[in-house]
Amino acid sequence: MSTPEPLLRCRSIEAGYGASQVLFGIELNIQPGEVVSLLGRNGMGKSTTIKTIVGALAPTGGEVYFEGQSLRGMRPDAIARLGLAIVPEGRHVFPNLTVREHLLAFADNRNGLRDTWDLARIYAVFPRLKERENNLGNQLSGGEQQMLAIGRALSTNPRLLILDEATEGLAPVIREEIWRCLATLKAAGQTILVVDKYVHRLVGLANRHVILERGRVVWQGDSDALNADRSLWSRYLTV
Ligand SMILES: Nc1ncnc2c1ncn2[C@@H]1O[C@H](COP(=O)(O)OP(=O)(O)OP(=O)(O)O)[C@@H](O)[C@H]1O
Ligand SMILES: [Mg+2]
User: Which of 42, 117, 145, 159 could form a disulfide with 83 if both were Cys (CB 3.0 to 4.6 A apart)?
Assistant: First the structure.
């Protein structure tokens, strides 16, 4: 039996900043419908891997493929149009656009596509955004901004949704709301690559986990395997 073509394939990615190399041959595949977590301590290369995937950083070696197509030389906006959406670290909400304007400005109404993320469906996942529909970005709490950043990413109907630090800096009750939302997205079949420091929560959410250490993949496996081997946690995950 042959394995299906991955939605995303990173083959031997090398990347860095100027003279300092950060990624040393990253291999990462994501199948359609999978939720994959990218784990590792601070500075191990998680965000750099994501920046390379979305075209914000050009790899110095290796290749990223999306639905079998090489992304080499493509600009971030062209890559986004292929169906890749990122919720970046820091959210990047526009201070003077309303919630509703954010959700309409980037919307991709792929005609003929069923189950697209229109306003009603985004508001169903985040009732809070509906309540805040006419508020400006700079009037939102951190949690509301993160919900908006996720809603905005969904409005493009991404084939792959990437979240870097999904719940960073949020109050516990808001974090739980984000985890619930991500579980809802997973149940709806959304393919997700997620970074977060709450590994316990990721174990409950993701199908598969990939651990980075100094720019290399040092382990990957499913949640049962990660749960069963606490030496992985002490070696690669806890501070
Ligand atoms: N813009 C940059 N210029 C130079 N070096 C950078 C830059 N961004 C990151 N680095 C370095 O690259 C390495 C990997 O950083 P990266 O941000 O990918 O780590 P991370 O795993 O996302 O960490 P964190 O958990 O802190 O977000 C670190 O040594 C970091 O200092
Ligand atoms: Mg990071």
Answer: 159
Nearest alpha carbon, ligand 1 atom 1: 17
210 located within any domain: yes
Partners of residue 35 on adjacent β-strands: 192
Q: Is 68 left (phi over 0), alpha (psi -120 to 50) or beta?
A: left
- Whether 129 is covered by a domain: the verdict is no
Question: Cα-Cα-Cα-Cα dihedral of 227, 232, 236, 238, to 10°?
Answer: 60
Question: How many folded domains does the chain comprise?
Answer: 1
Instruction: Enumerate residues lining ligand 1, CB below 6 A.
Output: 17, 22, 40, 42-48
CB count within 10 Å of CB 8 equals 23
Give the domain extent around 215: 1-81+205-239
Query: Got the DSSP string for 134-147?
Result: TSBGGGS-HHHHHH
Whether 33 is covered by a domain: the verdict is yes
Indicate which CATH number applies to the domain containing 46: 3.40.50.300
Closest ligand to the CA of 24: 1
User: From CA 106, how far away is CA 139, in angstroms rounded?
Assistant: 20
Q: What is the pLDDT of residues 107-126, one digit of tens each?
A: 776 655 567 899 999 999 99
- pLDDT tens-digit map of 78-104: 999 999 999 988 878 999 999 999 999
**pLDDT at residue 239 is higher than 90:** no
Q: What pLDDT was estimated at residue 91? A: 78
Nearest residue (by CA) to ligand 1, atom 29, is 43
In this structure, which ligand is nearest to the CA of 48? 1
